[in-house]
């Protein structure tokens, strides 16, 4: 990003595709802004990345449930560590 873009607080900060390696990821979202751009992809059979992981398909947009416009929403995502602790009974999304 350029120096001008780095100081622009009107644009959201984004991160590219990644795996959440911890047990949980918590995102507090205000309904006015929504989780714009937040997507998840199920990990099938433990593959992560490349063609085996279905990089080109399977992405789903995260949507918020209907709530009062002044009520923040907490999104909880389980990560790879939780999958390990539970012997893949829970899989990262």
- Global mean pLDDT: 75
Number of strands: 4
**Run of helices and strands:** HEEEEH
Q: Please count the helical segments.
A: 2
User: How would a crystallographer describe the biggest sheet?
Assistant: 2 strands, antiparallel
| Poorly predicted parts | none
Tell me roughly what share of residues is in helical segments: 10-25%
The spatial strand order of the largest sheet comes to 1-4
Task: Provide the β-strand percentage band.
Answer: 15-25%
Look at the helices and sheets and give the structural class: alpha+beta
**End-to-end distance, in Å?**
28 Å
**Computed CA radius of gyration, to the nearest angstrom:** 16 Å
Overall description:
- It is a single chain.
- The chain is α+β, with helices and mostly antiparallel strands and 93 residues long.
- It is built from two helices and four strands.
- The chain has helices at 3-6, 80-85; strands at 24-29, 39-40, 60-61, 73-78.
- It has a two-stranded antiparallel sheet with strand order 1-4.
- The radius of gyration is 16 Å and the shape is globular.
- The two termini are 28 Å apart.
- 1% of the residues are buried.
